[in-house]
């Protein structure tokens, strides 16, 4: 229920929101979650896989303050609703969430194939929802890939295969060359399927992808970060919090929105030093970009 009584913002199916939660011990965290409801519903739904600090707290009654701050929508992971090319949606695990919003959207009347990869039969979330969509849409097909044990039971109108989703599996069932392809999952899954599609002649212009995890920072080493105006000095480490998180932890005000490099709200000029990903004028996105040398910001 929006406590400010404002109407829900409009969004496109496939977009995500940034959620700020305060844990019972007062710690504040922000994470991104795809919207899994449709644009026609009065409530905004997110669907969370309990994995780490925030996701487990969101799934545990009493673990967070009753009011959560939701900002957005963000992202370009949305299909053109009227194009007639087949939409091939490929996901791993909780990466299914943006596709639930697309499947529930009455405006999207394109033929759809869903490829959904899970570890075990017990990990199949939203089976009922997928089956409801199969009954409602003549032009929707669903294929389930199980990397662990294939379930004994049969699923109505859902093909079940053992193994991972790869380019051969996609080509066996869908004419990928004439389709628009959307991929959502871990960084390695998204990268390998994208590479397979491009090697098979699919144009990059017809592939949209979104990853829920962080990219590995290859070859980076710890660097010192200086905030000149606020006279703060701290260390950034490759597998630790982002530059944005560290700046905020120092109590220095910095704008932010999506926190995954999509909205540009955190754009900050590097005063001195080098940041991988900064543009030619030295402006970087501290939510995703990483220092290559010790760096100075004029904040
Ligand atoms: C655009 C976008 C959309 C997203 N949409 C969704 C969505 O719809 N649903 C969703 O669930 N997530 C989604 N995510 C991921 C989400 O933002 C969080 O990254 C996720 O919930 C993990 O945050 P956390 O605080 O729970 O984990 P953190 O504490 O930050 O930990 C990060 C990862 O470390 C691992 N980890 C942490 N603690 C443990 C532990 N004790 N044991 C084993 N592993 C551990 C987990 O794999 C965890 O995912 C999305 C991310 C992006 C960028
Ligand atoms: S907060 Fe959106 S790009 Fe950094």
Care to describe what's here?
With 299 residues, the protein is of the alpha/beta class. It has three domains: 59 residues, no CATH class; 127 residues, Rossmann fold (3-Layer(aba) Sandwich), CATH 3.40.50.80; 75 residues, Ubiquitin-like (UB roll) (Roll). The two termini are 37 Å apart. The structure holds flavin-adenine dinucleotide and FE2/S2 (inorganic) cluster. FE2/S2 (inorganic) cluster (FES) binds next to loops.
Concise structural overview:
The protein contains six helices and 16 strands. It is α/β, with parallel strands linked by helices and 299 residues long. The protein folds into three domains: 16-74, no CATH class; 86-212, Rossmann fold, CATH 3.40.50; 223-297, Beta-grasp domain (Ubiquitin-like (UB roll)).
- Report, as a whole number of angstroms, the end-to-end distance: 37 Å
Bound molecules: flavin-adenine dinucleotide, FE2/S2 (inorganic) cluster
Discrete helix count: 6
Compressed to H and E, one letter per element, the order equals EEHEEHEHEEHEHEEEHEEEEE
Rg value: 21 Å
Major sheet strand order: 7-6-5-4-8-9
Structural class: alpha/beta
> What fraction of the residues are assigned to beta strands by DSSP?
25-35%
CATH topology label of the largest domain: Rossmann fold
Name the CATH architecture of the largest domain: 3-Layer(aba) Sandwich
Got a strand count?
16
Residue stretches low in confidence (pLDDT < 50, at least 5 long) are none
Instruction: State the CATH superfamily name of the largest domain.
Output: Nucleotide-binding domain of ferredoxin-NADP reductase (FNR) module
Tell me about the biggest sheet?
6 strands, parallel
């Amino acid at each position: 229920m929006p406590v400010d009584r404002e109407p829900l913002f409009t969004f496109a199916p496939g977009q995500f929101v940034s959620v700020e939660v305060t844990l019972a011990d007062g710690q504040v965290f922000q994470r991104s979650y795809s919207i899994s409801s449709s644009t026609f519903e009065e409530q905004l739904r997110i669907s969370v896989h309990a994995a780490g600090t925030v996701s487990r707290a969101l799934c545990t009654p009493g673990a967070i303050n009753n009011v959560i701050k939701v900002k957005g929508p963000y992202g370009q992971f949305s299909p053109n609703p009227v194009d007639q090319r087949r939409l091939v949606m490929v996901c791993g695990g909780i990466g299914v969430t943006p596709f639930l919003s697309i499947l529930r959207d009455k405006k999207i009347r394109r033929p759809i194939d869903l490829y959904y990869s899970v570890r075990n039969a017990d990990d199949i979330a939203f089976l009922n929802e997928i089956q409801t969509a199969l009954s409602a849409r003549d032009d929707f097909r669903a294929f389930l890939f199980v990397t662990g044990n294939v379930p004994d039971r049969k699923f109505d109108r859902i093909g079940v295969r053992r193994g991972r989703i790869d380019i051969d599996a996609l080509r066996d069932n869908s004419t990928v060359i004439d389709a628009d392809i959307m991929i959502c999952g871990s960084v390695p899954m998204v990268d390998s399927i994208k590479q397979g599609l491009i090697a098979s002649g699919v144009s990059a212009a017809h592939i949209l992808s979104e990853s829920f995890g962080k990219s590995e920072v290859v070859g980076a080493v710890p660097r010192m970060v200086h905030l000149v105006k606020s006279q703060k000095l701290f260390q950034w480490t490759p597998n630790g919090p982002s530059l944005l998180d560290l700046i905020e932890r120092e109590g220095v005000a910095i704008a932010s929105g999506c926190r995954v490099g999509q909205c540009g709200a955190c754009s900050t000029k590097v005063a001195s030093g080098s940041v991988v990903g900064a543009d030619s004028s030295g402006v970087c996105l501290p939510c995703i970009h990483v220092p290559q040398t010790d760096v100075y910001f004029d904040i």
